[in-house]
């Protein structure tokens, strides 16, 4: 396990083809590319998909960790990624210089107060 630097080469914030509102960061670095995200930011309520509280909280958390003020500023920024080896899921991203991290798995497991 180690940390590698990656450039955010594209982003996705919107609906996937099956109607779930989600987020992805596509990263490139060290000869590799990887996508981070894929978590549902919405939930079914009364037959409709509605943004969930955790989903709404995730967007500014990503911006803060990357060091951006808008979603559009993410592309071209560099971040650190916790590398767990080839073929494993990336679930933790960090600011390139500051000690700011987002662990997606832990974030979605946290209980809201």
Helix amount, in percent?
Answer: 10-25%
Give the averaged pLDDT, no decimals. 90
Beta-strand proportion? over 45%
Compute the number of strand runs: 8
Label the structural class: alpha+beta
Which spans of ≥5 residues are poorly predicted at pLDDT below 50?
Answer: none
Termini, distance in Å?
33 Å
What is the count of distinct domains? 1
Radius of gyration, Cα only, in angstroms? 14 Å
Largest sheet: 6 strands, antiparallel
**Please, how many helices?**
2
Strand order of the largest sheet: 3-2-1-6-7-8
* SSE pattern: EEEEEHEEEH
Envelope shape: globular
Q: If you had to describe this structure to a student in words, what would you say it looks like?
A:
The strands form 2 sheets. This protein has a 6-stranded antiparallel β-sheet with strand order 3-2-1-6-7-8. A two-stranded antiparallel ribbon has the order 4-5. The relative contact order is 0.22. The protein contains 2 helices and 8 strands. The model has no long low-confidence stretch (mean pLDDT 90). It is globular and about 45 Å long. 18% of the residues lie in helices and 47% in strands. The protein has one domain. The protein is of the alpha+beta class.
